[in-house]
């Protein structure tokens, strides 16, 4: 195996949802599966077993459906309730206003990986895993990727789709530490609002509850953003005390919080840069790591994958990469800006907070504005 040279048209470094989606889209756009290779450091079993919850917008579901990776096990979101703790005003987005069966869906990371991996397998996409890129050498007509097992991959275009999380990445041109940590868990409630998701802004950051699993609607995926020092103490709390503090932060809209899974936490920040050279390009988290508010990170990455596949399907070339960068600039800029403002505007207890609360009430009353925001969250900038 060591010293073996493998040749492809497109090499995708990172076989998470965005990398897998890119490979599947490339086949749909006419690139032969055997001319595409996915390179990832994890085994497929490790990736599929990942229990993290993710939110897919309606637009992302349409993209997954196009490559045969939908339907999969997921809970539909019919409504999204947005509010500011301690202030008047709220906004409610509803699927019926858009004539859709759902605004989005909540599923597990592993479910999406499994569905996309099966789609790539059916398409004959080559996979090298577990394997890592030790170094790369870009030439005028392609890229040479040296793997850690001694093999060499020669490719016309290399795509970086392995981004990692904020705090474990090289700094990019646009970087902001929000000084927030997300505490992640699954919780159950006594009085569920079936198929309704909640985005609750607090002084320390947003608190999201996403309906997940089951017909009775009692279980929710929790993303609770708070100051890092508080997150450390919250993780050490016993379940009862944790649920009590969660209830104080969220309120009683769902009755009592009755149970919680083991919790994990990760730091939050913005780290973004539209990176590309003549023969390489970054997409998804490798190009832009966002705050999880409004759940836009993966959805933005899937749109990256769809557009890059469209351009490379016309011609695997440096010109295609340039066309991709131009086509994606506006959607990336607006989505990054939207999440950045939402992550910062509602934090703290300053004099503007009552006005922001009233702004949510105004948004609820002005249907065109509410429709525009929901459309942006579901489809990005089209």
Layout of helices and strands:
Layout (H helix, E strand, L loop, with lengths): L4 E9 L3 H12 L7 E4 L4 H5 L4 E5 H9 L8 E3 L1 E6 L5 E5 H4 L5 E5 H14 L3 E3 L4 E7 L2 E6 L4 E9 L13 E16 L6 E6 L4 E6 L7 E8 L1 H8 L3 H12 L6 E4 L3 E9 L7 E3 L5 E2 L7 H18 L3 H28 L7 H13 L1 H13 L3
Parallel strand pairs: 1-2, 1-11, 2-8, 5-13, 11-18
Antiparallel strand pairs: 3-7, 4-7, 5-6, 9-10, 10-11, 12-15, 12-16, 12-17, 13-14, 14-15, 17-19
Helix pairs in contact: 1-5, 1-8, 8-9
The topology string of helices and strands comes to EHEHEHEEEHEHEEEEEEEEHHEEEEHHHH
Low-confidence stretches: none
- Average residue-wise pLDDT: 92
Largest sheet: 9 strands, mixed
What do you see in this structure?
This protein is of the alpha+beta class and 382 residues long. The chain is 36% helix and 30% strand. It has helices spanning 17-28, 44-48, 58-66, 95-98, 109-122, 228-235, 239-250, 297-314, 318-345, 353-365, 367-379, and strands spanning 5-13, 36-39, 53-57, 75-77, 79-84, 90-94, 104-108, 126-128, 133-139, 142-147, 152-160, 174-189, 196-201, 206-211, 219-226, 257-260, 264-272, 280-282, 288-289. The strands form three sheets. Strands 5, 6, 12, 13, 14, 15, 16, 17 and 19 form a nine-stranded mixed sheet that branches. Strand 10 (142-147) and strand 11 form a beta hairpin. Helix 1 runs parallel beside helix 5 (109-122) and helix 8 (297-314) runs antiparallel to helix 9 (318-345). The relative contact order is 0.18.
């Amino acid at each position: 195996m060591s010293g073996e040279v493998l040749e492809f048209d497109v090499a995708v470094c990172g076989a998470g949802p965005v990398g897998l989606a890119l490979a599947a889209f490339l086949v749909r756009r006419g690139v032969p599966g055997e001319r595409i290779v996915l390179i990832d450091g994890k085994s497929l079993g490790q990736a599929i077993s990942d229990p993290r919850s993710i939110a897919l917008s309606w637009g992302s579901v349409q993209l997954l459906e196009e490559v045969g990776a939908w339907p999969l096990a997921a809970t539909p979101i019919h409504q999204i309730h947005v509010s500011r703790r301690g202030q008047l005003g709220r906004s409610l987005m509803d699927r019926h206003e858009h004539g859709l069966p759902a605004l989005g869906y909540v599923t597990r990371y592993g479910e999406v990986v499994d569905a996309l991996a099966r789609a790539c397998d059916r398409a004959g996409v080559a996979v090298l895993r577990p394997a890592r890129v030790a170094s790369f050498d870009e030439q005028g007509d392609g890229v040479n990727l040296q793997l850690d097992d001694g093999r060499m991959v020669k490719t016309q275009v290399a795509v970086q789709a392995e981004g990692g999380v904020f705090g474990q990445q090289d700094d990019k041109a646009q970087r902001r530490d929000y000084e927030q940590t997300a505490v992640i868990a699954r919780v159950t409630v006594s009085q569920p609002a079936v198929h309704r998701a909640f985005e609750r802004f607090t002084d320390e950051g947003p608190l999201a509850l996403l309906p997940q699993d089951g017909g009775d609607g009692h279980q929710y995926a929790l993303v609770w953003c708070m100051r890092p020092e508080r997150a450390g103490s919250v993780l050490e709390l016993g379940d009862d005390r944790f649920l009590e503090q969660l209830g104080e932060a969220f309120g009683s809209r769902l009755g009592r919080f009755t149970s919680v899974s083991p919790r994990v936490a990760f730091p939050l920040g913005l780290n973004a840069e539209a990176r590309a050279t003549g023969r390489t390009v970054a997409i998804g988290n490798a190009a832009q790591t966002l705050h999880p508010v409004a759940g836009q990170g993966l959805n933005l990455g899937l749109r990256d994958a769809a557009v890059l596949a469209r351009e490379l399907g016309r011609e695997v070339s440096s010109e295609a990469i340039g066309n991709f960068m131009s086509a994606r600039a506006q959607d990336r800029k607006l989505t990054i800006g939207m999440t950045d403002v939402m992550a910062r505007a509602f934090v703290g207890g300053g004099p503007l907070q009552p006005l922001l609360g009233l702004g949510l009430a105004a948004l609820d009353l002005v249907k065109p504005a509410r429709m525009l925001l929901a459309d942006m969250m579901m489809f990005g900038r089209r």
